[in-house]
Amino acid sequence: MQGLITKSTGSWYQAQTPDGQRYDCRIKGKFRIKGITTTNPIAVGDVVDFELEPEQGTGVITNLHPRKNYIIRKSINLSKQAQIIAANLDQALLVVTLASPRTSLGFIDRFLVTAEAYDIPAKLIFNKLDLFSDEGLEILQAYKAIYEDIGYPCYEVSALEGTNIDAVQALLKDNITLISGHSGVGKSSLINRLLPDLDLRTHQISEWSDKGMHTTTFAEMFELPQGGFIIDTPGIRELGIIDIEKQELSHFFPEMRERMHDCRFNNCRHINEPGCAVLEALENEDIAPSRYESYLSIYNGNDTRS
Ligand SMILES: Nc1nc2c(ncn2[C@@H]2O[C@H](COP(=O)(O)OP(=O)(O)OP(=O)(O)O)[C@@H](O)[C@H]2O)c(=O)[nH]1
Ligand SMILES: [Zn+2]
């Protein structure tokens, strides 16, 4: 049978078949994944084959289907092992706010770079629309112009008042979506709007914890009433933990990526080189100064996460 992993404790995996049946499964033997050593070979979002053990009613996972992408967290200890947080994401939504609290452009850009590096389409959700003054709305339009121009769709919503929630709902339908954002931007409020049955969620988690849940490896995807899943797991909130080689960084800025083949030097850093197409576009205001600042900041190893 084929199933989608919707929950994982690190030793038990819940597989959901296309007809919606759920089976608790375990892994037999070892799964090796090319290139990385992981503490957990299978994660939420994975598609697996499994065999049912008729007596126990549980399954044994026998095969892992190829992934289109996955996100990892590095382990805190020095074993260099990574933990796969989730696989096969269709999109990553970053919830941001212009006020209370204000999400910095540096944080947004770092998130977008990480999503590019992971090969996950990213979208921005500007929340707390109800708080915006006329001036705030102008700033919002300026921000949206920067990001929509380079291919990141933007949505403006109010989780509090329910404004434009249907647009987000349409976005989530039949997709696996990661929702991220700083504390206080209204992620929980937004998720509550999308998944009104929150009590059920909490209940399910505690039931599963009896199966030997390790808080660090526990992950779950929540199925939306209209189809699709959202991923909500401890520690995922600040996706921004990937090592990127300096030389590669500009590949993860779409507006630089599309211009850098016109740079005079093919190893151009886009910092002070003559004949740099990126610097020329910056000069001509075809590249947003804030985006270029984020590039320099990440390039120089400054933390722009706050
Ligand atoms: N005015 C306004 N307030 C909102 C909106 N959405 C959320 N809030 C408020 O913002 C505060 C933070 O919202 P949460 O949903 O807890 O934010 P969060 O991102 O889940 O925060 P953490 O749980 O700390 O990660 C709460 O007081 C919410 O009531 C909105 O659209 N408008
Ligand atoms: Zn250049």
From TrEMBL:
<dbReference type="InterPro" id="IPR012340">
    <property type="entry name" value="NA-bd_OB-fold"/>
</dbReference>
<keyword id="KW-0862">Zinc</keyword>
<keyword id="KW-0694">RNA-binding</keyword>
<keyword id="KW-0690">Ribosome biogenesis</keyword>
<feature type="domain" description="CP-type G">
    <location>
        <begin position="78"/>
        <end position="239"/>
    </location>
</feature>
<feature type="binding site">
    <location>
        <position position="270"/>
    </location>
    <ligand>
        <name>Zn(2+)</name>
    </ligand>
</feature>
<dbReference type="InterPro" id="IPR027417">
    <property type="entry name" value="P-loop_NTPase"/>
</dbReference>
<dbReference type="InterPro" id="IPR004881">
    <property type="entry name" value="Ribosome_biogen_GTPase_RsgA"/>
</dbReference>
<keyword id="KW-0378">Hydrolase</keyword>
<comment type="similarity">
    <text>Belongs to the TRAFAC class YlqF/YawG GTPase family. RsgA subfamily.</text>
</comment>
<feature type="binding site">
    <location>
        <position position="263"/>
    </location>
    <ligand>
        <name>Zn(2+)</name>
    </ligand>
</feature>
<feature type="domain" description="EngC GTPase">
    <location>
        <begin position="87"/>
        <end position="237"/>
    </location>
</feature>
<comment type="subunit">
    <text>Monomer. Associates with 30S ribosomal subunit, binds 16S rRNA.</text>
</comment>
<feature type="binding site">
    <location>
        <begin position="181"/>
        <end position="189"/>
    </location>
    <ligand>
        <name>GTP</name>
    </ligand>
</feature>
<dbReference type="InterPro" id="IPR010914">
    <property type="entry name" value="RsgA_GTPase_dom"/>
</dbReference>
<keyword id="KW-0342">GTP-binding</keyword>
<comment type="function">
    <text>One of several proteins that assist in the late maturation steps of the functional core of the 30S ribosomal subunit. Helps release RbfA from mature subunits. May play a role in the assembly of ribosomal proteins into the subunit. Circularly permuted GTPase that catalyzes slow GTP hydrolysis, GTPase activity is stimulated by the 30S ribosomal subunit.</text>
</comment>
<feature type="binding site">
    <location>
        <position position="276"/>
    </location>
    <ligand>
        <name>Zn(2+)</name>
    </ligand>
</feature>
<dbReference type="InterPro" id="IPR031944">
    <property type="entry name" value="RsgA_N"/>
</dbReference>
<keyword id="KW-0699">rRNA-binding</keyword>
<dbReference type="Pfam" id="PF16745">
    <property type="entry name" value="RsgA_N"/>
</dbReference>
<feature type="binding site">
    <location>
        <position position="268"/>
    </location>
    <ligand>
        <name>Zn(2+)</name>
    </ligand>
</feature>
<feature type="binding site">
    <location>
        <begin position="127"/>
        <end position="130"/>
    </location>
    <ligand>
        <name>GTP</name>
    </ligand>
</feature>
<protein>
    <recommendedName>
        <fullName>Small ribosomal subunit biogenesis GTPase RsgA</fullName>
        <ecNumber>3.6.1.-</ecNumber>
    </recommendedName>
</protein>
<keyword id="KW-0963">Cytoplasm</keyword>
<dbReference type="InterPro" id="IPR030378">
    <property type="entry name" value="G_CP_dom"/>
</dbReference>
<keyword id="KW-0547">Nucleotide-binding</keyword>
<dbReference type="Pfam" id="PF03193">
    <property type="entry name" value="RsgA_GTPase"/>
</dbReference>
<keyword id="KW-0479">Metal-binding</keyword>
